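Dear Dr. L.,

I hope this message finds you well. Following up on our conversation about the binding site, I have prepared a predicted three-dimensional model of the protein together with PBG. For your records, I am including the exact sequence and ligand specification that went into the calculation, followed by the structure tokens. Please feel free to forward this to your student if that is useful.
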Amino acid sequence: MPNRPASPSPAVPSALDLRRRPRRNRRSEWMRRLVRETRVGADDLIWPIFLNEGERAREPVASMPGVDRLSIAAAVGAAQEAVALGIPALALFPNTPPDLRDEDGSEALNPDNLICRAVRAIKAAVPEIGIITDVALDPYTSHGHDGLLRGGRIVNDATVAVLAEQARIQAEAGADIIAPSDMMDGRVGAIRDVLDAAGHEDVSIMAYTAKYASAFYGPFRDAVGSAATLAGDKKTYQMDFCNGDEAMIEAELDLAEGADMIMVKPGLPYLDILNRLKTAYGVPTFAYQVSGEYAMLQRAAAEGLIDGERAMIETLTAFKRAGADGILTYFAPVMARRLKENG
Ligand code: PBG
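The resulting structure of the complex is given below.
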């Protein structure tokens, strides 16, 4: 090769710099325990539970191995189990019977609906558990959307008025934390005002702040029976997964409107969002490891592709490392049991 300048010889270090050896801190289990930064405890877990009408105690959710829809009596049992395991709170979701679903989701405003009866039963039997209720219309609408559908559009402001009323009847039933998952604009403030006006100033709001239009909700929609009914998608109200700055705007609004806690959902693909929000706002920030994430892990474990328990612990720890103060996860009872057994 004529006329080609000789390439400089690669910079070979005269000696490896090994005064610092990060491996020293990893050399044994006791050492790893000593330097460990993040631990998941039962206190970090919120257990989402699906409710069924009727006496049948439990009915498996086919798409979520290990998860059942529970009768109210079985949900009371789950609340007792949660307390025994040290889990602070349950998040309740109803599978509304099809004949009670209508265009406007009116069953959401029935003070004797499945959710309200479950809240009263759990509160009466297990007063020491925290109860989080979901505010959105999708388990109640015949079209499966979270809001009111008018002329092919989900209308914002009229929906917000209904959601605030839904929150009020849930608080009336005894809910401790109202969790709006609908993604309408202005709903946190409207809910706060209605709760306060009704004397529920101690009821908290956990806002689904950064809730993305996601492929990972499929099994949940199966569990609450909205998969079959959902017309179209939720992209005009749930966030575009291409966007991160938008989550900051949502958080700013939710906090200004009175949210006590914020949440990011789904979980694992959105750890960057979780970390940004926690770093920027420093408020109690939660992650939701959603149904599709749970189903993937369970299926892969069942196929022998991964070690399910290790993957569960690793993912839950990742949420905490990224900044989560707590995690909504269908693994909650399994994880808490493991923590209890193995410390
Ligand atoms: C709807 C709602 C959804 C979830 C919680 N509340 C699904 C959706 O937005 O379609 C998903 C939870 C999960 O997938 O585990 N208001």
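In brief: The two ends are 66 Å apart (CA to CA).

With kind regards,
A. P.
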